[in-house]
């Protein structure tokens, strides 16, 4: 009899954490499978084999939290999980993105501690990738507010560019 435990591919850390989180249980997708359509083009990594999985937090939690500003995605790259919001990059959208970030942090702490534990220790875990054009003046109070949160909108989530 063959030992399936030895031949079965180990689960990713994010997949294990998702399975422990009632709000999103069963919603883990391999690679960038949870990322919607053309938004996948906004993810740039040096080695695509290290993208072990993703979670569409927004869609997975929409029914349970229909009136909340929900964050978009969690993506596991090289055994670290990053939280990425794909959203228009204009001044008028800053309050919405900040509300989403606040919701995410609270949700991770209260409802998804296993996922929260996967945040990178040496890199910024939260990222805003803007859609279409970027319209936030660089020296505005809004840009400074985002800089204080280390949430400067970027055109693409580029792992190599992370600090």
Q: Given the helix and strand composition, which structural class is it?
A: alpha/beta
Output the helix-strand order.
HHEEEHEEHHEHE
Cα gyration radius (Å) = 16 Å
Beta-strand residue fraction = 15-25%
Number of E-state strands: 7
Count of domains: 1
Helix content: 25-40%
Overall mean pLDDT? 92
State the end-to-end distance: 49 Å
Give the number of helices. 6
The 3D shape can be described as globular
Largest sheet: 5 strands, mixed
Low-pLDDT ranges? none
Strand order of the largest sheet: 1-3-4-5-6
Layout of helices and strands, plus pairs?
Elements: H1 4-7, H2 13-19, E1 29-30, E2 43-44, E3 51-56, H3 57-61, E4 73-77, E5 80-90, H4 94-110, H5 113-116, E6 126-135, H6 141-148, E7 157-158
Parallel strand pairs: 2-7, 5-6
Antiparallel strand pairs: 1-3, 3-4, 4-5
Structural descriptors:
single chain; 163 residues; 5-stranded mixed beta sheet; two-stranded parallel sheet
What can you see in these coordinates?
This protein starts with a helix and ends in a 5-residue tail after the last strand. It has helices at 4-7, 13-19, 57-61, 94-110, 113-116, 141-148, and strands at residues 29-30, 43-44, 51-56, 73-77, 80-90, 126-135, 157-158. The chain is globular, with a radius of gyration of 16 Å. The strands form two sheets. Strands 1-3-4-5-6 form a five-stranded mixed beta sheet. The chain has one domain (10-161). The protein has six helices and seven strands; from the N terminus they run H-H-E-E-E-H-E-E-H-H-E-H-E. The chain is an alpha/beta fold. The mean pLDDT is 92.
